[in-house]
């Protein structure tokens, strides 16, 4: 899909190194977490190898990769459909505030609307990331009113 100057495409094996580097950069920038690049790369390859786990999309501008997002899936018995979760969002600093994420979002939103089994899109955002929250709200997303809890096992 093209969105103005943006071209959105499914990621492939040739994107793994860039996706890995972007994921590592995003974790450091947003959560101050240093991820193990080998583990991240294995995780990306696992998604690319098994579509049931998710999908990566890459936004290009002028043929240059500029940003990415990953979708994962969650079944909702309440809605008898899948929520598509937007995760691993990263926009290269050179392309920020230029519509890259909006183009990625519109792409997955249109795909979701065209897929009857999908009941909607969701994402989580750091509590203090006001810039991201404003971006998501500007695209029509609303705060779902949940807090996220976890119990890591590794």
From TrEMBL:
PROSITE patterns: GNAT. InterPro entries: Acyl_CoA_acyltransferase, Bact_Acetyltransf, GNAT_dom. Keywords: Acyltransferase, Transferase. Residues 14-154 form the N-acetyltransferase domain. Pfam families: Acetyltransf_1. It comes from the Bacteria. PANTHER family: ACETYLTRANSFERASE, AMINOALKYLPHOSPHONATE N-ACETYLTRANSFERASE-RELATED-RELATED. This is N-acetyltransferase domain-containing protein. The lineage of its organism: Bacteria, Pseudomonadati, Pseudomonadota, Gammaproteobacteria, Lysobacterales.
